[in-house]
Amino acid sequence: MHATFETLRPAHDEAAWDLFVFRKARESLCAEQLRQQLLASLRSALSCNDRNALLDCFVRAGELECALGDLGSPELARAARAVDALAALTVQPGSSTPAGDILSAFSQLRLPPTVFLSHPEGFSYYSLHPLDFWDLARQIRLESPSAAILGIRSIGTTLSSIVGCALKGRGRQAERITVRPAGPPYERCLEFTPQQLQWVRAHLARGSEFVVVDEGPGFSGSSFIAVGRALRRAGVPSAQILFMGSRNPESTEMHARFDPEWNTFRFCSVLQGTRLPVAANIYCASGGWRQHRFLDQRNWPACWTQLERNKYFSADRSSLVKFEGFGRYGAAVRQRAVDLSRAGFAPPVLSYENGFVEYETITGRPMCPGDCSPAVLQRLAEYCALRADTQTASAPAPVSLDSMLQHNLGVEFGVQDFQLDLPLEKLVIADGRMIPHEWITSGERLMKTDGASHGDDHLFPGATDIAWDLAGVIVEWNLARGQQEFFLREYQRRSGDNPARRLPAYLLAYSVFRMAFCRMGAAAMAAWDEAHRLWREYCRHRNRAASMLDQREKRTRSAVLPPPMPAEQAA
Predict the structure, then answer these.
(1) Which of 288, 292, 297, 329: disulfide with 124, CB 3.0–4.6 Å?
(2) Which of 322, 302, 304 is nearest to 312 (CA)?
(3) What pTM was estimated for this model as a whole?
(4) In total, how many domains does the chain have?
(5) The CATH number of the domain where 475 resides is what?
(6) Where are the extended beta strands (E) located within 118-247?
(7) Digit-coded pLDDT (tens) for 390-436
């Protein structure tokens, strides 16, 4: 039996980091389709001299080079030259390479049928601008006239190209390769290939400085350290190694998770936030939006603020500017936002600039669980039916929900070998955020905010069955049985889809994910008051998951027990 769980939050919850919350994985994609999308976008950007669109093309091109690097393709060197030419055109409109030559270079690449790609997280979620690294590379002090640049795949591929372009602009000799450290997240290691080792030693003989480029560092800095160690093994002195990243590690992370060897390397980080849209005036990320939505701080919803996307209000608060991503990922998010707006469920999209989408602000009151009247439930059902019809996905996420479910049940409850079927009958890009405060009542309208990106970010679920969002409504709005039945009837009436058989499994999977997310968030936010809100939500979702496990256990026991004997036989 799983007792109701609610206790004081532990000061240090190291076990939280064992939970499965992030679904980092690479997708299998058609290489030719990616190339044609890149070429179409590049022709359009060049024809209208659209700098935003050209930057998106550069991000797409870097992804393609990264995929070829992972495969060890013989076309890698040609792809890298094409990406470097596009980088020069992106940062210097008067580049010496004609646009037609760049198009031709990508057109002539011999590609494999399939490549494997993951979203470059900084470009997709964390508002890292590629040109931030251009700025830093134009300023860093290098003693040698020669630089050997090592980009850490994935995103380091694109960043290394920008850094190389900047250093060449300073009159330096600059060459680059890309590497991918392997192993557990906090214990990455790297072994150079013979060709890479030869390249490193040639630069060592030349007296080059070695610049290691990536976003981050992450929670442990292990990817950077893996490359630094590989360089040292090749004979490169520490004084000739420079790490170039997107953020300075916080002291608490350094103390708790970073290898002491980190401090033996030089490190410099970019200055972010220098290329914001004109309308981005009032910073409201990191949970700051709540003070504009809620009169009483006691009503603030829990928020893992470190994972929030960068967002701003305009000066008059008539619009919200939110980072939605560069490249193919950002393009998909923007299209979903436009589709939801045209359907009358989301605010109008006003503009796009530097990865940010500007939305018209919805004035009104955030909803709370007690607001679920029949009219509200009908609106929620209509929204889920719309997503089932229009936000379809072609393939499930590469990391399965059942793997998340099994792992987290083992960590949290000690449940082993848990088997549960999670059918995929209505495959969609889910909303993933059916929480009441994400809905705003404005006059006679009930509008959904933040519905374009979360179902396809680096957290679960990824592409999945619409039952995930149906479960989200039931769990987050705390629907009573009668309300659940009404809501599901309304959804079925609008969509023609009966989710009854699928829903119980998704209710458990949803609750287990939210439990894990809130517990890990509380651990990450341990130094802030926010941790208490997240811990409270963790307890709520854990108790719901425990209750469902108990019910499942009782049904299993009753199914295997022999039926009771009739009274006359017992006598």
Answers:
(1) 329
(2) 322
(3) 0.89
(4) 2
(5) 3.90.1200
(6) 146-152, 173-179, 209-213, 241-245
(7) 999 988 888 899 999 999 999 999 999 898 999 999 999 999 999 99
